[in-house]
Design brief:
Elements (H helix, E strand, L loop, with lengths): L1 H28 L6 E5 L6 H17 L3 E5 L6 H8 L7 E6 L20 E10 L1 E6 L7 H10 L5 E4 L5 H13 L4 E4 L3 H9 L5 E5 H10 L2 E6 L26 E8 L4 H14 L3 H8 L4 E6 H22 L5
Parallel strand pairs: 1-2, 1-3, 6-7, 6-8
Antiparallel strand pairs: 3-10, 4-10, 4-11, 5-8, 5-9
Helix pairs in contact: 2-8
Length: 327
């Protein structure tokens, strides 16, 4: 009698497990059958938000469901990222973010998530370099000339970035360590005030976004000395990469990527990745993205995931070396 009850319980458990599996498979096959929320960890109006809305317009038509952009800014992208990581892994809550995903957690003593283990990469979308700039009238045209200038006047120079622990700060730390410069880092609350001070002659150099630097470089008010990443920026083809010039740890380019929480079914990831890739080949989408001075560089999940892990390892090491914490 007892064996019979055990056998019945075992069969019931197996049936429940199978029912759950078939339900999950059915849900994946029908995906999507309701609106998709895309969390953007920045306020409306910036490059990440603009990219999300451009892609959302196309992908909503392609997927047959509305895509709702949910701006969750604050705490250096951590508020939006944490909201995404705690969502159900069903493909209906996604995160469109930048490479700060693998930087911000390392700036906290007790980060609420692991950027590699707790997210499902869906696709890399676009990339963007940072540009080391100086005042146009300074006469400095190469990183080596900048190094010579700063070394000739020790203790008199400062450089700016768009925030402590930002990519700009960390790249410039790597540059400073390799060149042995004696200058001071000034972290600004965003890129705009650092540009104002550079153009006003209050600081010597700024490392900044390509989209922010481009109009000032074209007008001659700034000189672009070098760009981060593995290859030159199409909008500034005459500006060399740091890698070309022999500098190390300056060759990974900032990415914009689409993520889900850990555990999103592979079929759903594939559906989303295919839709995003299709969007990035559409002429209208391409034009709108190029207007943001972003470089279209799509990669599927299988190729994007190793990049996320590599960049996480690189940035965690640099942040530990710098010793910066934001809490």
């Amino acid at each position: 009698m007892q064996a019979g009850r055990l056998s019945f319980s075992l069969c019931a458990a197996v049936l429940l497990a199978c029912a759950g599996l078939f339900s999950s498979l059915s849900a994946s096959a029908d995906y999507p059958d309701k609106p998709i929320r895309v969390i953007v960890p920045f306020p409306p109006g910036g490059a990440t938000d603009s990219l999300a809305r451009v892609l959302g317009d196309f992908m909503s038509r392609d997927l047959g469901q509305p895509i709702v952009i949910d701006n969750r800014s604050g705490a250096g992208t951590m508020i939006g990222s944490e909201a995404a990581v705690n969502a159900r892994p069903d493909g209906y809550t996604l995160l469109l973010t930048i490479s700060s995903l693998v930087q911000a957690p390392h700036l906290l003593s007790n980060p609420p998530f692991d950027p590699v283990e707790d997210f499902t990469p869906v696709a890399q979308l676009v990339t963007t370099p940072l540009v080391l700039t100086v005042l146009g009238e300074s006469g400095i045209e190469t990183p080596q000339q900048l190094v010579q200038k700063v070394k000739s006047e020790p203790g008199r120079h400062v450089y700016g970035s768009y925030g402590a622990g930002s990519s700009g700060h960390l790249y410039m730390h790597a540059f400073t360590e390799q060149t042995g410069l004696d200058w001071v880092h000034v972290p600004y609350r965003g890129e705009a005030p650092s540009v104002t001070d550079l153009l006003g002659g209050q600081i010597t150099g700024v490392i900044m976004s390509g989209v922010g630097a481009l109009p000032h470089v074209r007008s001659g008010r700034m000189n672009a000395l070098a760009v981060t990443g593995p290859y030159r920026m199409p909008a500034m083809p005459d500006v060399p990469t740091f890698k070309e010039l022999g500098y190390e740890r300056m060759d990974n380019r900032g990415w914009f990527g689409l993520f889900g929480p850990k555990g999103v079914p592979a079929e759903v990831v594939q559906r989303l990745s295919d839709s995003a890739t299709k969007a990035l080949a559409d002429p209208e989408v391409v034009q709108r993205i190029e207007n943001l001075s972003l470089i279209i560089d799509p990669l599927p999940a299988a190729e994007f995931a190793p990049i996320v892990k590599r960049d996480n390892d690189i940035w965690s090491a640099i942040i530990k070396e710098v010793g910066v914490k934001l809490d």
